[in-house]
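Extended Data, panel c. Modelled sequence:
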Amino acid sequence: MSRPQQLVLIGINHTTAPIEVRERLAIPAGRLADATRTLLHQPGIREGLILSTCNRVELLTLQEDGTGLQENGSASQEGPGANLLRFLQEYFAVAPSSITPHLYEYREREAVRHLFRVASSLDSMVVGEPQILGQVKESYTVAREVGAVSSSLDSLIQRAFTVAKKVRSETQIGSSSVSIASVAVDLARKIFGTLQGKTILLVGAGKMSELAARHLIHQGASNILVANRTLERAERIAAQFHGQVIPFDDLYDQAARADIVITSTGAPQKLFGRSHGQHFLQSRRNRPMFFIDIAVPRDVDPRMNEVEGCFVYDIDDLQQVATANLADRSREAAAAETIVTREVDKYEQRVQSRGAVPAIVALQQNAEAIREAELARSAKRLGELTPQQREAIDALTRSLTAKLLHPQLTALREASRSKDTE
């Protein structure tokens, strides 16, 4: 007999862990498939998905029932929580004590609710930002490709996409949303007063860089430089925004041309250190230079702040701006939370009702077999019947069977909703 399974989600995000912790667990896009396969091979795990963004790393799994994290926050020796903590420890080569205080764990209904909130951008640093749904979809695609998602998680994740769409269409939460990139640009605008005539260097040609470029142009920036390890991607963004490509090998020679540097690469090591800042300021004759580091792991060593004239802001620094903007969206967020709660209830009822399906089908099949047997046994006594008479008798017996079964079927459905599986 198979062991019962449960939905378990464990993770860290921008509210529970500083960037120093999050960057140690960040998974680049190129390694996501490998990490998902490794997760699936952990004991007891039947299905799994990994969501890794600049603000969170979460493991969503369907696995054999067990215990999990203890009340003091540490993982128990057995159970889902221990399995997932062991995965994090071994895959990232980190000590459990360094990450356990920052972990959260949700199961069953609360795991469903958390997933719906994440997909709907209610758990984001910037509530209402649209990027997170695309990131969840990318993680889902990878999980499907490596065979880590099948029927149970598939239906749940598909429902999360539907809920996110419903939140977008039935509330105005996205109308005044601000992405991480636009928050970064807003910070730059406040620092300079105006971006007119400023030179911007985008290091990394990902989606975040493209978003930043759009907002920068909207705010008046006229000179955009783009540097990326893949030259073709840099050229594509530069052409899109009438900017100039800087060969990545020339990055350190050319970076001093920029007033504002926005970095969003997936580099495992920091690109800019304290000594780079000193060199840049000397080339700029001490004109200020601002670094907005929206990469995880970080691209800029925070010690560059020690260089007079260099100002470095990482993704956690953007939290203050995001929090200030949250007040404007609180009413729409409340409406979105109501939608999520309603959809969680619907999903839970749908899952619970599945338990009654085999019993309902078996009862209906048994009743139909009895009905057909009784009709066959009565055929001789009834004699020759016209097609209309046979149809009438068939309809009558089907109706009687349905009415006799109705109380039993209703009881089965009600029992499944109250989790009375026996």
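The longest strand covers residues 5-13. This feature is highlighted in the accompanying rendering.
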